[in-house]
């Protein structure tokens, strides 16, 4: 494709996306296709001869769109938001167009140095401590996902816990990892990947009301494990759990970690970015004094399209110790001088995209005030929704809900336990099949609970109002006698 | 940014990229900036108020471009090519614009099903065995990089070697991994990440001429290790090593693996895609009969921008066994039915982009014949270059060089050993500082050798001719008496 063909087709694609975003409310939020339907509509063999780009776009409309669940739809309330704003998409497009590899500083110095600048910017915007900055002993890096950030943090923790032994001798000591029942599953996955095995993941109790990790139980488990010969490597505290946005007591957990020299990672994938607003900065209480590493996802709630997780560490040495390997083909004068960062040593993969461009583009387009306004909009709408639910005798809302996620349960007169859960699931499936909104569920204390996560770019008050009206209406219909 | 603002700025970005690609030869291939130069030119604090998108583009030109090493420049011969063709960029743009998460089938069925279709297409195009297809026991998946593909393959191998024990009990047995001195460093990194530790990476000898792994030595090492109590988990054979594009004898290595029930992974990151041409299909000899897993990078030589590695496995069960975890918040009817693929279970991270769009777009735009023509162009130019070098008494060329990479060494009359290596390095640095071309080095038998990898989208005969002329001229100048 020549540059001129690219210019022509590129503008077609831009128009396609602009039209898509402008008309996104015309689609059902959640795809309604059956398994195999999309695949069967595609040819089983690739074309021998090249095809016009218009055919690709036509098949996107005809074949693929029915199989898309529209994460950018204003009625998307499932999981957590995964924002793709205009400047993010364009920053990502520039990254694709430049097509540079950022594995080493020398393979594109701007790719590395812009990343250093924007992760330092973001640390400042979130009020994270100065020792997370690159000019101190720490530093930030963009990872593809929170899963990878937690994996990399665990590797650094194991490196430190083993006195550097992990890189050479691996998991030859009984290293243990501490999570709660509410911690993201990627931590258990990281324990499996790093050769600890799921049996070395120790599950700390949570407060039954807030679902936050119980420091007293952490202390008891550590005592017990150490007495049995374990080598505690890392505690993972969560700021905004995946299930209910619960916030672990980082300061109290951090005290325990500090006493015993255990690495504290703070997984703030969802909620960390809320700290861009001074009134929500409390979510990170304890981080400055206690976190060895910290990660949050601009690709969830901060207008930057996937993939963009930022991981900071208070001391980059264990991270580099865990992950640096320098084969001959990567040796170069800049690396040898010790005066540059090679971010390949901060991640699992060697290769890396120029992801800083999209975060840079987002921060510049919105400015700090625009980013704050976006977070405040989501929190405000969620608080309104929670108040409507709390005021309705047909529902009960889970407390607390300080940010953009509201968990709630319909009441089903006459139904208890599994029967009530089935009714709740049925309500959710009916609502999702309706196409106006998409929500997912979790369980609290064993009971099925509905989740509405508010924070989409396009989500306005009317969308939340409509969703709530629809939920009430369907619930009333399902609750009607004789239904 | 509203859809209409996106439309306007999007077209600016498309024009910027089209102009960039049309004028790419006006830039020095390798960035000439000094460490810190880009960073110092950027503001230390983020903007409080949003800025016009035009300012972002202006700073891209003014501040960032001098710090870009232009991987799409026709004079880029360093490392391996990292192609970003027009249709790939546009496929990626569509992915960013749709902004869907493909972690589960249900979170966007088309994202999963298109991926299944294109990896099956590519298996067919490369002549890979039918048991790699999704409808058989195997299946393919797009990973971000070959590093991740090898890591995931190792996890599957460990799962099988431990009879499923690895996921629960981790690296509690003396598992070993077999590579050669030429194997990519990501394998050692994978051994570190999986808790084996680098001490459990066993290095098999290579044939001193071809640099291919020696099956006899593999057998001897395995005998010795097993006698010492080791549990061999995986052998990694390489099709096209990073250093010299050496090709390990997959069939002979595979026989040994089969006898002993050891997982054979074939890392064909660079060279695997050459098999799209029937005349180069021999690179994969032995794969059909012996490989438990196989990976190659469309993001290197097959016109698809980073990140796009495809990993296939002959049996997906150990992969899923190693990586599946199903927390409550991901439970959904489609997954429970067992009738869909959830690709999150095939990779490290939970989240995933819609990367299939770019590979689909590339295959449709070029068609099989266009992809073959691209590979043939690179090989043809490399063979011409190798013949020119071989005919010049001032140089010696490393044999064999069947694909797009040519390794060669200038002769330095009167200099031997380290002195000759220094002269070679100096020649390379002078050439790279000239801006017309960019190449990197490796070592063969301890001696510094220059590498020219040909396969860029924009690279034509004249670029290779100019590069060779420049190399000869600088070499002659450095070799002149009294220099």
Automatic annotation (TrEMBL), chains A, B:
Record has Lyase as a keyword: yes
UniProt similarity note: Belongs to the group II decarboxylase family.
Modified-residue entries (N6-(pyridoxal phosphate)lysine), positions: 300
A single GO BP: amino acid metabolic process
Name of the protein in question: Aromatic-L-amino-acid decarboxylase
GO terms, molecular function: aromatic-L-amino-acid decarboxylase activity; pyridoxal phosphate binding
PANTHER family hit by this protein: GROUP II PYRIDOXAL-5-PHOSPHATE DECARBOXYLASE, MIP05841P
Keywords for the protein's UniProt record, in alphabetical order: Decarboxylase, Lyase, Pyridoxal phosphate
GO cellular component, one term: cytoplasm
One Pfam family linked to the record: Pyridoxal_deC
Coiled coil: none
Co-factor(s): pyridoxal 5'-phosphate
